[in-house]
Amino acid sequence: MTLPLAGLVVLDLTHVLAGPFASMTLADLGARVIKVERPGIGDDTRAFPPFKDGRSAYFAAINHGKASIALDLKSEDGRETFERLMARADVLLENNRPGAMDRLGYGWEAVHEAYPALVYGSVSGFGHTGPDAKRPSYDMVAQARGGVMSITGEEGRDPVRVGASIGDIAAGMYLTQGVLAALLDRERTGLGRRVDVSMLDSQLALLEHAIAIASVTGKAPGPTGARHPSIAPFETFHASDGLFVIAAGNDTLFEKLCVTLGLPISDDPRFATNPARCDNVRLLKRLIEAVTLEHPRAHWIAKLTAAGIPTGAIQSVDEVMKDPQIIARNMVVDVLDRNGRQAYKAAGNPIKMSGAEDKTSRAPAPDLDGNRGEILRWLDGS
Amino acid sequence: MTLPLAGLVVLDLTHVLAGPFASMTLADLGARVIKVERPGIGDDTRAFPPFKDGRSAYFAAINHGKASIALDLKSEDGRETFERLMARADVLLENNRPGAMDRLGYGWEAVHEAYPALVYGSVSGFGHTGPDAKRPSYDMVAQARGGVMSITGEEGRDPVRVGASIGDIAAGMYLTQGVLAALLDRERTGLGRRVDVSMLDSQLALLEHAIAIASVTGKAPGPTGARHPSIAPFETFHASDGLFVIAAGNDTLFEKLCVTLGLPISDDPRFATNPARCDNVRLLKRLIEAVTLEHPRAHWIAKLTAAGIPTGAIQSVDEVMKDPQIIARNMVVDVLDRNGRQAYKAAGNPIKMSGAEDKTSRAPAPDLDGNRGEILRWLDGS
């Protein structure tokens, strides 16, 4: 049982969310992640609520299992250690404002010349090229400017933010993909590459359907509440005790749905095809809800599931954390404290892999500079 | 200029969105993707609107640059060709209902025995283990059951769906990461691994912040409209002509914001720290909007940007597609038709990499079985 990235060393200068999310995935896949933090303050998220025993659960959720060393990259001592670390690392990750690494003498060109095998991964608000490269950004700005907010929310009302921080997370996931592809390429060439991922670009990459619609129809799609814009029925419905989801993505499923609900409308020309159902989606919803309001959610979810129709509850976060399927998949793990006791819960690793142990707990998130001694000993031992 | 995955062959049995999204990224990074489709119908999304010249722009947006061969995996002829393809491929992707590949004789164990170097990537609604492994799913079910919907929407109103199909896309992105990590591992061991990613697990993995909150406070977070749940000010504000975003993620940025708005409240104990600002977020919003309503969005975005404060418009999809930064980053590409003319627009590749050409157009999406001849010739030429 060996994790696929065992033996890889990731030197991680990133903070807050996008970069640390990428290095969390790399750590979960077996890489050794050394977090290089600013002396004194460290990662901003060390101060983000909620706290437990004086430590940020937010920071712990993203940084478990990493090591930390505080280095002042403007001091001689800090630079020497950092350079020795670069000489040993396979990947360098950074999310400084474009230009900042160059000013430190650690821009891509300089680093590539000195450490040609090092893969250099950058994540930033807008990327390292283009007119807005040097602007600051945050998740909310990426979600807004990148178009995802404009299609999220209720029809006729103001758009809403996606509750999960996908402005950061999507960029972190693309950074991981780029770094892994560059590492694979390095196996052939012996050379590292520079990966440059932006939060704004990554939002656009999520818009598959919306771009296709805008490109062909000339009209930008708007928010459609809980409904899919071009499949029907594919939305939330009221049962007698609350909302649940039915997703009948093709004609066969729709026919099964009609039979299961006792609603003989699948031959009606207004509902016989998906385009027709989309044209008559409000009427369709009222007809389905006329039936679903008769019984509670659990009744319908069991009945529709038995008929093979995709359906489900809208679960709150605490409900999801107790979901038997989520438990069976080890998707909620314990983050341990320094005494090996459970301190927080965090999301598990969604990449399940043969021959790789899927641990049920994670080592603690590091204290700031908490691993200096062992990191320096490791460097000396080379 | 070589793409990092040049030379890799991906045999892609997936359809609809999660799997094809993964193989799209692999293709964008240089892999040769051979899409194996059902004879007659092919990928369901070939029938998804919108259409142009009789072809689905939705299908084209996700499947450009791939090759297609139609194979009946229950016929002798289809199986023989498929097995010859597996012998040449580096990666097999599939998104059949758990159990279906086994019934075909192409489950992980059998394939691994016959083709030990092949990486086997599966994506499904709930994963290949656990009580609900065999249930059907769609994006909407994953978003609902996975908790993301419960934190997306307006406070006190019904939750909404994330406008982008992140139920599928997040799973596709984790599949890509898992496959790349397995390929890297294969460089050392010579052996492929099995990657098993589920849509439900992948939703949970997006909940960083929400799980931390639920774990420590014991209370599940709800939707907070356009506002971040634990940073303030970090939301939308009305200017005289509409909404825009201000994301002042730390005290320094908040102080700059107060100076720029001419609103001397940064020393007020109700607003001096982020926790205090979160406690008084409604009052804070009214105070800021009292000022921002004086001028149009463009005024504020220019002024705040000059002061280094993260800000931005809420752009519609057509506005994003024309955004100068997006254009400069080549994030909207042309999908060509068979005559080499621009047919549709699609999202570009957000993974920018040194030494890798970032093409401004994509080869057409394949016709069903449209590459049979060349694929068979390639197999024979081995």
TrEMBL record, chains A, B:
One term of GO molecular function: CoA-transferase activity
UniProt keywords, alphabetically: Transferase
Region Disordered, annotated ranges: 347-371
Pfam families linked: CoA_transf_3
Domain of life: Bacteria
Keyword hit for Transferase: yes
Keyword Transferase belongs to the record: yes
Record-linked SUPFAM superfamilies: CoA-transferase family III (CaiB/BaiF)
PANTHER family according to UniProt: SUCCINATE--HYDROXYMETHYLGLUTARATE COA-TRANSFERASE
Protein name: Carnitine dehydratase
Native source organism of the sequence: Roseivivax halodurans JCM 10272
